[in-house]
Design goal:
Layout (H helix, E strand, L loop, with lengths): L1 H19 L4 H4 L7 H14 L6 E5 L1 H7 L1 H38 L5 H54 L2 E6 L19 H12 L31
Parallel strand pairs: 1-2
Helix pairs in contact: 1-6, 4-6, 4-7, 5-6
């Protein structure tokens, strides 16, 4: 999900933050990357044009910030539960196809030509239907996933802008995608403001965190936040 979500919202991040930023003409007219390398060029040019030592630079993982908010965690979990029946349905169809393939492999040479042809046609038809259903479910899931991200991002943009201005930042880079897909090549953890922005957003939103899930006995420490999984299943 990560690349899909990030690629969909990156331009919105730039435009939304720029809409609230009025400190420079560059913020008013953000560059729009059209290739993976374009973002890197824009970032390099921006840093090269600034006087050495005069710009405070920070990074923020936009996707992790969205997912990490209480609102994001709640809404993505709700989306996961919403698509659970569809995920189970697709999984069941896939299991049925695999069982038919096993039947063909183990009994095919014992069947008459008509029965064998009918079984092969049934497998082919079910595979095509499953492929279409999986693609439709994936598209629907991603659309709703992106709608959640866009909604949260619209409210997060002024939080980022306010924090950046109050703390003297001249440049903020999105670290969601590693170089060369994204503009950030390397940075120390000390310049990452993701958690700070998440905390500020949570305080403003008033949405309570999800209750912690009970850990099985003897389990290791809590898991880190992960992007939601898609409802698609194997169709081979």
């Amino acid at each position: 999900m990560k690349r899909t979500l990030v690629s969909t919202i990156v331009l919105t991040v730039v435009l939304a933050v720029a809409a609230f930023g009025q400190s420079s003409s560059a913020a008013a007219k953000p560059a729009t990357p059209t290739t993976p390398g374009a973002g890197t060029s824009a970032a390099t040019a921006a840093m090269a044009s600034a006087p050495t030592g005069s710009v405070k630079v920070g990074i923020i993982d936009i996707q992790q910030a969205i997912i990490g908010t209480n609102e994001g965690s709640r809404d993505f979990e709700t989306l996961q539960k919403k698509f659970e029946p569809k995920r189970n349905e697709l999984s069941g169809q896939n299991t049925e196809i695999e069982n038919l393939k096993k039947q063909l492999n183990t009994q095919g040479d014992k069947m008459n030509e008509e029965a064998r042809t009918a079984l092969m046609k049934s497998i082919e038809t079910k595979q095509k239907n499953l492929q279409r259903a999986a693609e439709d479910a994936q598209a629907d899931y991603q659309q709703q996933q992106n709608e959640i991200a866009q909604r949260i991002l619209q409210k997060m943009a002024p939080v980022i802008d306010k924090y950046a201005k109050a703390n003297g930042y001249g440049l903020l880079f999105d670290s969601s995608n590693p170089w060369p897909q994204g503009p950030l090549l390397w940075a120390t953890a000390g310049v990452d403001i993701t958690k700070t922005i998440v905390d500020a957003y949570n305080a403003q939103s008033g949405v309570a965190p999800l209750p912690a899930a009970p850990k099985p006995a003897g389990s290791p420490g809590s898991a880190t936040s992960k992007p939601p999984t898609s409802p698609a299943t194997s169709t081979h």
